[in-house]
Amino acid sequence: MIVALVALVLTLGSRTVMAFLSLSAQTLSPANLGQFLLSIGVGVLILLGFIFGHRLAWQWGRLVAILGGLLLMLAAVGMVAMANSGGDKGLPPAQLFPVAGLLFAQFVPLFVIFFALGSDSAREWFRLICPKCRTTTS
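The chain above was modelled as a monomer; its predicted structure follows.
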């Protein structure tokens, strides 16, 4: 359970760093700012649910982690492929690799969260295992 908490804090930190980098480069549109704020807000709610052991946070943590991890992984692979093909008209290849690195730093902890929440200790923390008969609920 501690592993999932640490990975979620790292993910929230990397999203916050991405938002500040976009703000400092003045490339953050109002729609993107809303997207960053929404993702950070949902992450904080899930983090609080993890701390207090809410079952809904376990369920949404696993769902958001795997879907977000797959999406960010595809984006990172796309950035690397674009850099290897010569880049696009907006960014040269030398600038695409750091962006891919930041995406990589975001999707790896999401997969860690997904697998850590599937462990028996996480299921016990969220009271998904009956203490008497040791039956796992979903």
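The radius of gyration is 17 Å.
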